[in-house]
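Standup notes, protein team

Yesterday: finished cleaning the Magallana gigas set.
Today: Collagen alpha-1(XII) chain structure.
Blockers: none.

Input for Collagen alpha-1(XII) chain:
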Amino acid sequence: MPCVLVGVVAIYKDIVLAIDTSDSVDASDLKDAIDFIYNVTKWITIGPQDIQVAVVTYASDVTEHFDLDDYLTNNTLLSAMEALKSKLTPGGGTYTFDALTYVKTTSFLPMRGSRNNSKKAVLVMTDGQSTNYPLTVKTANELRTELGAEVFAIGVGQDSKKNVEILGIASDPDSYYVYYVDSFDYLCSVVPSLVPKLDPGAFAQGVSSCPTVAPVEQDEVATSSSNSSVIIATVVLVAVVLLSATITTAVIIERSTRVPSFTSMESQISSIVNQYGNAPLGESPANFDASQLDHVPELGPREINLDIVSPSQFQPRLDPIPIRNLELL
């Protein structure tokens, strides 16, 4: 039976890892960051015809700890990474744009070990927004468009999802190139997903000491709280509107019951007039019952006014004087 040889295609790629060491990062966080890149690197294939890795740290200044071609085996590269734990100290601002500029103009130069026609990738790890958002996003875009580099971004910290700069740094789609973790000790959870993206032929197992249950992210809590507030405010607003409508309706009904109908008033006036018509003649006007005239509405600019005279001379007429000014003589 003939022997079948299965060939493995080499991944010709240069990768630069850029780590934020600004003063917002603790010393213990830096150790977790180094452990993370160590656990990523141990699964990928390192070599002059495979993958080469350089490490850059940045704060107010940028430092390249080793070039792409300084360590060309997994063992030597891992030893160099382990040694970084005792060398790194946090401090300074978050000058992410300087780090990206350095990677673009220096790290990928042939004299720094970069190879012609190699694929290029950059991993940026940061716990906060840079001091110059527009320049950071602009430089990251130049890395992608001018060098054709894939740019991965990892936001660290409970507020990392609020850092929109992360999305501007990373390549698209965000679901593939962007990661968020609540703290540096959860970086290990990214390893199994990230390794095959850097080296499609590699498979990474989970880190045994990696925490399995992550805390609830701060932005999720804030969103939940915010949604609850919106719901409560909406319910209160609806209740107020309904209450206002009920009160308005009640007032309208109450007012309508207080205003006597014009037809009713007309019949009352007619009754009084009839009393006058049937009264005996004399110098004094006849006595009559006005108790029915209990409500006297204003009927408009011209209202009925009765000049009270002797029955034989009685003539109703229109006059602008309101009926409430009626005088009984």
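Follow-up from PR in the comments: The first strand starts at residue 13 and ends at 20.
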